Queue: 4 jobs
Job 1
Amino acid sequence: MKLFYSPNACSLAPHIVLREIGIPFELVKVDLQQHLTTSGEDFYQLNSKGQVPLLQLDDGQLLTEGAIISQFLVDQAKRDDLLPKINTLPRYQVLAWMNFIASEIHKAYSPFFHESYGEQTKALFTEILIQHYAWIDQQLTGQLYLTGNDLSIADIYLFVVTRWAGFIGLELTHFKYLTSFMQRVANRQTVLDAIMAETE
């Protein structure tokens, strides 16, 4: 199994998931500017969207979209702690968070990583992010993670995209529950190992 990634991208989320479930995998770094892998392979030939993450299974089949890859991995590993069983409400509560993070948090960072967006647009999305994080901070009151006191794939996804706040100068430390959450996830050995592996 191969995970195609780019450092500090959203591909870090399924990377962490792979380490949480403990199955063997190979990391393949992608230069998103040149759209080449470290071996010189044209990444567009593997994923015509040109985006990471991309998961390549041992039989050659491919899967894209980080939120879906994370779900697939934990289901294959039967890790009900990271994503509860199908046809149970807790599963769909985790998936509701996954959808919210993908549509409202992840996408709100896009203008900061594209030169075509002006400062007025970035200011608007800064306010949107702050509003969303204020709400998330409230949801974390009295619990360790988004859906309670157990880590899920939604927590991993939120951690990864929220790290981008530091890259764009977005101050979030006044959200005390969110700050504690970020520190809690950052201290997990799987997270430390994944970040270290992507900086080598």
Note: The chain has eight helices and five strands.
Job 2
Amino acid sequence: MAAVLFDMDGVVIDSEAAWQRHKRETILPAVVPDGSADPAEITGMYYREIYDYLDANYETAVDRERCDELFEAAGREIYGGDAGLMDGFPELVDALHDRGASVALVTSSPHDWIDLVLESFDLTEAFDTIASAADVERGKPEPDVYERAIDALGESPADCVAVEDSTNGSRAAVAAGAYTIGYTGVHDGVDRSVPDELVGDPATLRERLLALIE
């Protein structure tokens, strides 16, 4: 493998518990008040595409603008201080670079949220490329954002390994042709049938990635 592509929420940062809380307690009760929508269904999706999904599958009580506002308010709160960095992540990035691997961030988050994370955790120099769902036509679970990152790195999909914490994200990475690790170190939100393997903690993830890069 020549490149490692990291999802952001639930992998690089442990924001997923906060996101699940906001979806469960604030966002979904406002958008789908009857309680029929499961937060797991929309985990990993670009927030500006979530309203279309909910409106197509459930009885929605607000419009797209209000739904987006709820997500944006949650994002400001989460990335402003609720999220923490994966244990040992800067050291992992250094080790991957030392072995000649490229490192990418591939996320459904928009650039203003990404920038908050990079600045908060001193990661502005960590990634060789950053791909956001805001930059592509279709977000996860479609492969577009992974394809964008792989193209930017100049690598073949078969030479890339992706790390994802959600089913939607894993489907996107698999569809793009990357070897996919489902990471359950923050929350167990991956359909086990989708990724190529599962890893449950930062130390094991480091071990597996360094082994794959060799």
Note: The longest strand covers residues 102-107.
Job 3
Amino acid sequence: MQTIIIGSGNVAYHLVKAFKQNNIEIHQIFGRNKAELLKISTEFNIPFSTNQLEDAELYIIAVSDSAVENVSELIKNENALVAHTSGSLPMEILKGNYRKASFYPLQTFSKTKNLDYSKIPFFIEAENQIDEKSLFELASIISENVETSDYERRKYIHLTAVFACNFVNHLFARAKEISDSQDLDFNYFIPLIDETVEKIHHLEPKSAQTGPAVRGDERVLKLHEELITDEEHLKIYQLMNESIKKMYQ
């Protein structure tokens, strides 16, 4: 299937890389950021353009959620299949007379971090069974974990991912602020972080919880609150402890 990937950010980069690693041909990459497109084009030897979107059978729109609708209007090929990669948008956000779909990889992407694409869950939705089957087969070349999913299910997958990934990473960033403020090497905490994540491969998250809040250790909780000088850190600390206490009441 002749394919064009639209975008030059983290998701677009990794889709290009995953396609190339699995010998899936990409006809063109398209976007507005010439510098980033040039980097991707050079690394993977794929033609790119910022102003001439060529005809293709499949267009995959891998841009920010806020840009999907406007970008979708650039596609004039009514015989094409067009899929976005968002977990939080319905297919109907795509504006055009072409066939519409969703091609959602559930992962956090950074250009500088290598990934095992075969482990990434892909969630597929299309307007008809033929297109759904085509996208399912395409994703299955990349990953061993592919499912169909309608928007109602997919938006809850995305919500769960925000809790499991984005919020957790934000807490890592806040923890580093505390360690930096006391001149503590954040690398001290990497084995702890690794073990915390590794543990939930074997235990339910609720069963894996440790710490003063789940133990009801008010002395330690009070000590920590006295140590915290940043108002935002204190709000987060108190909110998280209250949530833990309620879960284990």
Note: The chain has two domains: 3-149, 155-247.
Job 4
Amino acid sequence: MTARAADRARYDRATAAYEAPLALVDLAAFDANAADLVRRANGKPIRVASKSVRCRALLERVLAREGFAGIMSFTLAESLWLARSGFDDVLLAYPSADRAGYAELAGDPKLAASVTVMVDDVAQLDLIDAARAGGREVVRVCLELDTSLRLFGGRVRVGARRSPLHSPAQLAELARSVARRPGFRLVGIMGYEGHVAGVGDAVAGRPVRS
């Protein structure tokens, strides 16, 4: 029996008494993968993307390990739920138009201290201010810089259209707007090089991709 078949047989035995649908996580494999990520990060803290680990107990488990720090969340509602559940470093991965969520964030000191929102346009600051509903807490802000690859004067673009901030000058201009604005605190910048995610530095036989 192959190792894969042996694992499948073990999983079938473990779940035989349960009705579908169900989810199963091999904690030994989970921990081994986490350890390998830490090894490859070589000292750089790893922020866990919650949209890839949709289980609070697993988030708690991996964040208890040395080498992991904080969560990158999918929606503002999820960010607030995670913060209320005890996670104190939650970065919202995308700008949001959730006005009710912003009102809750700006009105609760614990949530405001635990959640950082993503912004790539001054209009989003206007939206947050309009949604505050009297909430006076300082909102933590992260700016996203577009890191897609632009070639031939911008006529060819490789990568996701994640942000309108394409240059350091544009990023600096928005950063100054955040810094001048009461009720906000700039705490970081983010760039996602999705067009090279998973691409090796020297792929044999594929020089263009390398």
Note: The chain is about 40% helix and 20% strand.
